């Protein structure tokens, strides 16, 4: 259900899908003379807060970058720390996510993961499959280039034509619309191989706030920045203003 085109009629005030590069855990820990994995642990707490904040604000989809295809290059103890953290977070968080109406997905390359982790992800997806309040995509062993390549590979294997639509539908996030807003914490100004295809028209918000410090107020600042943007989807500002005013009038007539 990807939406590469056409543009939605009204410049939505609230994003339907937020994507987040949760950066800055390591620096948060180092500032406190703690091991990097302590920052990742705080990162899980921040993620829990932001899931709750998204539910409170009526955001229907949230995608976070928890482990990238490139994170395997980190020191072995940090990689194993992140794997253990995922296993621990699955055990501790899934029951309350389930009770709170969250549907979990773990987009990413499962073949690189241990059988124990892969089975845990599958079980969490199965246990929350009936939920509809918030779709939470925890992208794990994910890379934007991997996603485009695996989608092209699966279409080719099925003998299907490669089009924008068929590629979108074969990608790991085909169950949600493309993100409207992509936030990166931690002060870096890049996308780092996150949702490359899906972020084609996402509004980008960068903040110096380190991920463990990100909270509802920081989310609200990003949402305010989003609401102040004019999304043009390749059209002129005048075309967008006209389309938005027509849609607003139509909305008033139907109110
Ligand atoms: C980037 O910060 C963050 C990560 C590589 C991992 C993100 C993981 C979490 C927030 C925890 C949630 C994870 C699971 C397993 C559910 P960094 O380490 O690059 O920070 P730095 O730029 O300050 O070094």
Strands of the biggest beta sheet: in what spatial order?
3-4-2-1-5-6
- One letter per element, helices H and strands E, the order comes to EHHEHEHEHHEEHH
What binds here, in terms of ligands, is: farnesyl diphosphate
Q: Into which percent range does the helicity of residues fall?
A: 40-55%
Report the span from N to C terminus: 28 Å
Q: How would the global form be characterised?
A: globular
Give the class from helix and strand content and strand pairing. Answer: alpha/beta
CATH superfamily: Decaprenyl diphosphate synthase-like
The fold-level CATH name is Undecaprenyl pyrophosphate synthetase
Q: How many beta strands in the DSSP annotation?
A: 6
Give the total of domains. 1
Question: In CATH terms, what is the architecture?
Answer: 3-Layer(aba) Sandwich
The averaged pLDDT comes out at 92
Radius of gyration: 19 Å
| Biggest sheet descriptor | 6 strands, parallel
Approximate strand percentage: 5-15%
Note the main attributes of this structure:
255 residues, alpha/beta, Undecaprenyl pyrophosphate synthetase, 13% strand, disordered N terminus, binds farnesyl diphosphate, single chain, 6-stranded parallel β-sheet
Task: Give an overview in words.
The protein has 255 residues and is an alpha/beta fold. The protein has a single domain (13-254), classed as Decaprenyl diphosphate synthase-like (Undecaprenyl pyrophosphate synthetase). Helices cover 45% and strands 13% of the residues. It has helices at residues 25-31, 36-56, 76-99, 115-127, 144-157, 164-170, 216-227, 237-254, and strands spanning 17-21, 61-68, 102-105, 134-142, 181-184, 203-206. A six-stranded parallel β-sheet has the order 3-4-2-1-5-6, with helices on both faces. Helix 4 links the parallel strand 3 and strand 4 (134-142). Helix 1 (25-31) crosses helix 2, helix 2 (36-56) runs parallel beside helix 3 (76-99) and helix 3 (76-99) runs parallel beside helix 4. 34% of the residues are buried. Farnesyl diphosphate binds next to helix 1, helix 2 and helix 3. Farnesyl diphosphate binds at residues 22-27, 36, 40, 43-44, 47, 66, 71, 82, 85-86, 89, 138, 186, 211.
């Amino acid at each position: 259900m990807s939406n590469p085109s056409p543009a939605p009629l009204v410049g939505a005030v609230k994003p339907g899908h937020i994507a987040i590069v949760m950066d800055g855990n390591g620096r948060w820990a180092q500032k406190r003379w703690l091991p990097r994995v302590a920052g990742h642990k705080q990162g899980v707490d921040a993620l829990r807060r932001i899931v709750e904040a998204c539910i409170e604000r009526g955001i229907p989809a949230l995608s976070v970058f928890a482990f990238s295809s490139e994170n395997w290059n980190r020191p072995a103890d940090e990689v194993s720390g992140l794997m253990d953290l995922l296993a621990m977070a699955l055990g501790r968080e899934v029951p309350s996510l389930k009770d709170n109406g969250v549907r979990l997905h773990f987009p990413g390359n499962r073949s690189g993961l241990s059988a124990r982790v892969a089975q845990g992800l599958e079980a969490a997806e199965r246990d929350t499959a009936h939920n509809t309040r918030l779709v939470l995509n925890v992208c794990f062993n994910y890379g934007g280039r991997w996603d485009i390549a695996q989608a092209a590979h699966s279409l080719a294997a099925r003998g299907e034509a490669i089009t924008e639509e068929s590629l979108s539908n074969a990608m790991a996030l085909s169950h949600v619309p493309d993100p409207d807003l992509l936030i990166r914490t931690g002060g870096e100004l890049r996308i780092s191989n996150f949702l490359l295809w899906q972020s084609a028209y996402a509004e980008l918000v960068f903040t110096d706030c380190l991920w463990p410090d990100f909270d509802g107020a920081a989310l609200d600042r990003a949402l305010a920045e989003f609401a102040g943007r004019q999304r043009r989807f390749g059209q002129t500002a005048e075309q967008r203003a006209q389309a938005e005013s027509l849609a607003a009038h139509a909305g008033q007539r139907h109110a």
